[in-house]
From TrEMBL:
This is DUF421 domain-containing protein. It comes from Mucilaginibacter gynuensis. The keyword DNA damage does not apply. The keyword Glycoprotein does not apply. Coiled coil: none annotated. Residues 106-136 form the Cyclic nucleotide-binding domain. Keywords: Cell membrane, Membrane, Transmembrane, Transmembrane helix. It is a multi-pass membrane protein. It is found in: Cell membrane.
Length: 228
């Protein structure tokens, strides 16, 4: 089958409209930046799911006027104004009602307490453990026992509160080479950490269930101090 590359790449584009596309794109890009600036947000990491939905809506409204000569810019500007108005109204009501804010933004989620993972229903696990471990390593955390509290915020950021050096507990290692040595069979007696919840126990050689979460996969616990 012969491909019509001219149709695929150029299509019905009128080259006299190309310059207009550049101007339209610049105008809509400036409009998106302006609305985001008026929303008061300074960075992507500050965005909640609600605000991501706002940005998607802005992108949808901005897209057609950029390259579709049948769509004028003014209707998109009206959409932008409506979105900004909705945003301001919704954030106002959220500031007045904690229940509405919770419905809109969601709750913060405790991930680690007292050097161990919080045991929760599988349906409540809204994060991937590998990604969470990567985030911990970026904070110079080597094992879960260094962390007193970790909270997954409603905007996706993670807040860590650490033990002092004197309080660090033996914990589940998150360094890949060490963590990959996990096994359901303990080869020799010692202090081990459950790979599911981070609970530490002194175990003899053999197979064991975690007393805290009933899982049966273990890795040797470590108690190194955090590098600050």
């Amino acid at each position: 089958m012969d491909l019509d590359w001219n149709k695929i790449i150029i299509g019905d584009l009128n080259f006299s409209f190309a310059a207009e596309i550049v101007i339209r794109s610049l105008v809509m890009f400036i409009m998106v930046l302006l609305v985001l600036r008026l929303s008061g947000k300074k960075g992507v990491r500050q965005l909640s799911l609600f605000e991501v939905a706002i940005i998607i809506s802005l992108g949808s409204a901005a897209g057609d006027p950029m390259f579709n000569e049948d769509v004028a810019i003014l209707p998109a500007v009206i959409v932008f104004a409506a979105i900004l108005l909705f945003y301001r109204l919704i954030t106002y009501f959220a500031s007045k009602s904690q229940k509405f804010e919770k419905l809109l933004e969601g709750d913060s989620l405790y991930i680690i307490e007292d050097g161990r993972f919080v045991v929760m229903d599988e349906s409540n696990h809204t994060f991937a453990k590998d990604e969470f471990f990567a985030e911990m390593r970026q904070q110079s955390i080597e094992h879960v026992g260094q962390v007193r509290i970790a909270i997954l915020e409603s905007n996706g950021a993670i807040s860590f509160y650490y033990y002092s050096d004197k309080e660090v507990k033996p914990g589940l290692p998150i360094v890949p080479k060490v963590y990959r040595a996990r096994s359901c069979t303990v080869m020799e007696s010692g202090l081990y950490a459950c790979t599911f919840c981070g609970n530490t126990e002194n175990l003899a050689a053999g197979n064991h269930q975690c007393k805290r979460c009933t899982k049966n996969e273990w890795v040797g616990a470590i108690s190194t101090l955090r590098l600050s």
